[in-house]
Amino acid sequence: MYSIIVKTKLKAGTREQFLPTMLENAAASVRDEPGCHVFDVLQDKADPELFYLYEVYEDEAALAAHKETPHYQRSRAVVNPLIAEQSVIRAEMLAVNPGR
User: Fold this and answer.
1) Alpha-carbon span 94 to 92, nearest angstrom
2) pTM of the model
3) 8 A C-beta contact, residue 14 and residue 82
4) In sequence order, which residues have a C-beta less than 8 Å from that of residue 33 and are 6 or more positions away?
5) If exposure means fewest CB atoms within 10 Å of the residue's CB, which of 3, 11, 21, 70 is most exposed?
6) Transmembrane residues, as ranges (predicted)?
7) In what order do the strands lie in the sheet with 36-43?
8) How far from the centroid of its chain's Cα atoms is residue 13's Cα?
């Protein structure tokens, strides 16, 4: 399996615009995409405008397919202007929690 961790620092005062859109995208990804196994949205405890997205896909092709979905396209149109900085870690999963 293939995983990405996206670190997103928002522009000041944009959290209320970002969060509903990202939560909708995360829910639709897991619900509607057979290749998306996990899409967690985490907010930093010390910085309310810093978010981490933890996403697990069957493979890199499933991530590519995710980026073609209507819910992803809608979310990017909203969140892209809100982002101050963003970085991505790409990783192969070596162990999976069986209880998840």
Assistant:
1) 6
2) 0.91
3) yes
4) 62, 65, 66, 69
5) 70
6) none
7) 36-43, 50-57, 2-10, 83-92
8) 20
